[in-house]
Design brief:
The chain is mostly helical. Helix content is about 40%, strand content about 0%. The chain has a domain of about 35 residues. Helix 1 packs across helix 2.
Length: about 70
Amino acid sequence: MREEYDFSNGRKNPYAKKLKKQITINIDIDTIDYFKSQSADTGIPYQTLINLYLTDCAINKKQLTLSWHSA
């Protein structure tokens, strides 16, 4: 191994903005089952489908509307 490396001609990773970060999130079983069935139909891994859906929500700035009803 060299003692020194020359990075003066180096360039930034062009995919750096596309890097992903692993997180832990609690998702309902029914929701996971839905994406797994979509995965079986499309051949795309269900984690990728969830990421694509969330990315679409973020890009289009979709706002979640919630209403709570008392029992």
